[in-house]
Amino acid sequence: MLKITQQIESDIIILVLEGRLTGPWVRELELCWRSADGTPQIHPIRVDLSSVTFIDAEGKALLTRMCREGAQLVTTGCLNKCIVEGIMRSEEKKV
To answer: CATH for 2-94?
Structure first.
């Protein structure tokens, strides 16, 4: 189960995730992201992963694509920080 809440603060769209980013929830996040990313007022997107308890390989791949396309990933906790740092390192190597 994954809960996705969309907030707009200071011209930034924040997608707050709670639960497990796995299975069908990965596709649901992608739909929310594409919907938010396609808004007429181009706002930067921040993804808050602080309350995510698990990220599978498909979820990590989506987060990588989101990061590549300009989304900012924010998290707390050792596991998710490690995943986000890995994504950031892999993107830095491509630049």
So the answer is: 3.30.750.24
